[in-house]
Design a protein that fits this description.
The protein is an alpha+beta fold. The protein has one helix at about 1-25, and strands at about 45-55, 60-69. The model has no long low-confidence stretch (mean pLDDT about 80).
């Protein structure tokens, strides 16, 4: 009977210590924010075409066409 009482007392003491330990421990959860993704846009490819046209009366006409790809 004496051993049983001692066993119950030790078990209750262990449970009490675990409860008290859980009250005083604090685990901080770390939250990390993802770094923003850097999006690079490739430079636009341009094509320029120059055309010269000479008319019958000797005047020269120049036209330039620019295209973006």
């Amino acid at each position: 009977m004496k051993n049983r009482k001692r066993l119950i007392t030790l078990a209750m003491a262990a449970l009490s210590l675990q409860f008290l330990a859980s009250c005083f421990t604090y685990k901080k959860e770390e939250t990390t924010t993802p770094t923003p993704a850097v999006v690079t846009v490739p430079p636009a490819t341009t094509s320029e075409t120059t055309t010269s046209t000479t008319t019958d009366d000797g005047t020269t006409r120049r036209s330039t066409t620019t295209s973006n790809y």
